[in-house]
Amino acid sequence: MNQTNQEDVDRYPASLRILHWVRAILILGLLWAGWHMTGLDDEVASKFDVYYPWHKSFGLLAILVALVQITVRLRTPRLPQPPQTLARYEQVLSRFVHRGMYTLLVIVPLMGYSMSSTFTLSDGVFFFGVNLPELLPKNDNWFVVFQWLHKVLAYTLLGLIVLHVVGAIKHRLFDRDPRSDVLRRML
């Protein structure tokens, strides 16, 4: 196989690269907004008038982007595999982190949707101005459970993202074998 064809196989298709970076921006923005808005006093009007509605809208957008990305991945016949130059534990850790992130990219927004649906004082779930149906009955006891899950799983997702980024940087800057550079596959 010539060098050009090998590089094509080692890079993700443009559609997946674009979805990856769009999703990354969305998720980092949502994590920041969630952390920031929950730290605001309830008397701050923007907390409930701006942050919560936009967080819900972008959270639903993030789950849609993740589902599209998962669908494209499943329909793409040849995806890059972890380089053989990586240690076995790095290949296993990479698969674990990726699968964990994809799982949480779906579950965390669903827990947020469940929070909004069950909270008795919630004014609903909005998706950029469209009021979506609340799928669960109002129940503040369940709200507390979904709130806890949303928070813990969001922090777990953040931890996996940190591992993902640190791994990419390690392979790019510190590994001696340039074939271990996995970041170039997403650029």
Write the layout of secondary structure elements.
Blueprint: H1 3-10, H2 14-39, H3 45-75, H4 88-118, E1 125-127, E2 130-132, H5 140-174
Antiparallel strand pairs: 1-2
Describe the model.
Helices cover 70% and strands 3% of the residues. The chain is mostly helical and 187 residues long. The chain has a two-stranded antiparallel sheet with strand order 1-2. A hairpin with a 2-residue loop joins strand 1 (125-127) and strand 2 (130-132). It is elongated, with a radius of gyration of 19 Å. The model is unreliable at 1-9 (pLDDT under 50).
Please outline what is shown here.
The chain contains 5 helices and 2 strands; from the N terminus they run ααααββα.
Descriptive tags:
187 residues; mainly alpha; two-stranded antiparallel sheet; 5 helices; 2 strands; 3% strand; disordered N terminus
Mean model confidence by pLDDT: 90
Instruction: Specify the overall morphology.
Output: elongated
**Tally of individual helices:** 5
Strand % is: under 5%
Rg (CA only) = 19 Å
Low-confidence stretches: 1-9
In this structure, how is the largest beta sheet organized?
A: 2 strands, antiparallel
Helical residue percent? Answer: over 70%
Number of E-type strands: 2
| Secondary-structure element string | HHHHEEH
Structural category is mainly alpha
Distance between the termini: 22 Å
User: Order of strands in the sheet with the most strands?
Assistant: 1-2
